[in-house]
Amino acid sequence: MTERADIVIIGSGTAGLTALAEVQRKTRNVLLINDGHWGTTCAAVGCMPSKALIEAANAFHRRNDFAAFGISGAGSLAIDIPAVLARVRRLRDGFTAGPAATPDRLGARAISGRARLLGPNRVAVNGREISARAIILAPGSRPILPAPWRAFGDRILTTDTLFECQDLPRRIAVVGMGAIGVEMAQALARLGPSVAGFDAADTVAGISDPAVRDAFLALIGGEFPVHLGAGAELTETDDGAIRVTSGDTSFTADAVLAAIGRRPNIDDLGLETLGLPLDRRGMPPFDPNTLQIGDLPVYLAGDANGYRALMHEAADEGHIAGRNALAETPQAHCRRTPLGIVFASPQVARVGQGFAEIPEDRRATAEADFSKQPRARTAETAAGLMRVYADRDSGRILGAEMCVPAAEHLTHLLALAIERQLTVAEMLAMPFYHPVLEEGLRSALRDLARQVPGKTGSDLSLCPGTGHPALE
Fold first, then answer.
1. Segment 368-411, tens digit of pLDDT
2. 397 bridge partner residues
């Protein structure tokens, strides 16, 4: 017998839970199907446990600045790695408690099992067949792990397993220098293990601006070696270690952290039953503004679509998919200004359009050297480079890339400006307190103002006329 529901949601991550909250505004006849742990990638194995580890690593690393502040005794400090990892898990368990309680809250409307599409309106799970008015697919993603590497067993770590370690190996190779790889490599190096980073690309942390890339590499290169431009090959050594070879470089490790990306969980989901062509990745055509697959009552949200695999984007996509699954006609929703932050030290961030996305004849570029930034100097964090881009003709802010302290805050200010389509002159008219890191952004904006229209010779806007000559 075929069961019936208004909406079926597959996946209980950020996108799935956000979609559930949206759908439940209109109907309770919804089923949530999940395969594996009931929780979100961010809370369980991503954003939150990684930041807990990074904060511990940064706190311990601060001992290196004590002498500059006139504080002695740094050499007597020690770190208890098992205690650090236990704290990470304790915090992680708190972050996942809410999502993990979803089955208890939903009762029979929560189904644990692997779902498979039977068509645009039908799903099979645990021997049951369910028909629905609309289906939301949000099965998430998993770490990419090359098949040959599996032979090394638990000596190959991913972020799905790293935080379960009771202690850390003495030597760790991190393969993949994207956001996750850079964050974890620096944190692990600051906690004590010998670390080396590898990537086949010629950049790190997703940086497309060569000047920012070079500035960041010079900074992190002082903490652990980074080898770029060649793939990594893993071989067993005679003493049971792993030799990682990349080009002419090799590093002997006790464990390897694979940080080469995540793969959408769309295999064996039954997407071929939708009757639409799939690309070489097995991905169907979908609209990022509606999340609709073709013109079907099926929506693909979160990490599973590979569009913007970030927690805040997954939440937005769950919201869009949930609303459209209930609508008579799906509506296109404007997506937020692209924003990505890497929680290294200094932080790496990219907001709006990156350097490589803006045509050279359209791009005006200015920079601020944070090694000289006064507020950062007082905190012994003065380092890094910010580059801001504006439209050469209109003066409108287009984007920025940076590796600077507190980039997470500076990029939110820039994201708001880009979202509101502000010009350089309009940003300069905003107040900049003293002494703050935002003064570094103002320096870059003043440089930009000399390259684009709208410069008046003053940061301040002129007051509009009153219309009464006697008062002017």
1. 999 999 999 999 999 999 999 999 999 999 999 999 999 999 99
2. 390
Cβ 12 vs Cβ 301: under 8 Å: no
User: Which residues have a Cβ under 8 Å from the Cβ of 147 and sit 6 or more positions away?
Assistant: none
Measured CA to CA, the distance from residue 333 to residue 325 in angstroms comes to: 13
Q: DSSP secondary-structure letter at 265?
A: S
Q: At what angle do helices 14-23 and 311-326 cross, to 10 degrees?
A: 30
Q: How far apart are CA 384 and CA 209, in angstroms?
A: 13
C-alpha distances in angstroms, 393 versus 351, 390, 398, 424, 453? 20, 9, 12, 12, 7
Of 300, 326, 294, the closest CA to residue 314 belongs to 300
The DSSP letter of residue 328 is S
| Structural contact between residues 176 and 261, judged by C-beta atoms closer than 8 angstroms | yes
Query: DSSP states of 412-462 as a string?
Result: HHHHHHHHTT-BHHHHHTS---TT-THHHHHHHHHHHHTTSTT--SSSSPP
CA dihedral of 162, 166, 169, 174, whole degrees rounded to 10: 10
The pTM assigned to this predicted structure is 0.94
Of 206, 297, 319, 223, nearest to 259 by C-alpha is: 206
Please tell me the distance from the alpha carbon of residue 304 to that of residue 281, in angstroms, as a whole number: 12
Nearest to 49, CA basis, from 189, 163, 143:
163
Element (H, E) at 342: strand 339-342
pLDDT (tens digit per residue) in 263-287? 999 999 999 999 999 999 999 999 9
